[in-house]
Amino acid sequence: MSLDLSIGSTPCPCCGHQTDKLSFNYTYNVSPMWYKIYPDSKHMVEIEGLTGKQACVTLCVALTELDLYPEEFIALNPENGWGSYEGFKEFISDLMKASISNPTLVWEACR
Fold it and tell me: What does each C-alpha distance from 18 to 8, 12, 14, 73, 75 come to in angstroms?
């Protein structure tokens, strides 16, 4: 199972320009890492429906936790090898970059 997130599929509310959709995918096998950061979250990487600007707050907290406590997250690496601390951190970093580049666009998810 995997999580698919995308941003950029709606026209910019300021100018109406249609941007290309940016899509991201990562395995649910690392979901324990997300729930360690956000134990009350209902979904892994819960940014669906948020604008890029709003998602930055959520993603910044996640990146900070991943940076501060790498050993704790590395211990959660999936035994089957599908996903890793390093890959998850890169995934969250990519989502952050897309959020910063698209502050007014809304995140969509396919679960």
Answer: 8, 6, 11, 38, 42
Q: State which residues form the domain around 81.
A: 2-110
- Of 47, 48, 77, the residue nearest 62 (C-alpha): 47
Burial degree of 9 (CB within 10 A; 0-12, 13-18, 19+): middle
How confident is the model over 31-72, as pLDDT tens digits? 999 999 999 999 999 999 999 999 999 999 999 999 999 999
Q: What is the pLDDT of residue 11?
A: 61
Measuring CA to CA, which residue among 40, 30, 41, 55 is closest to residue 108? 55
Within 10 angstroms of residue 102's Cβ, the number of other Cβ atoms is 20
30: which 2 tokens?
């690392």
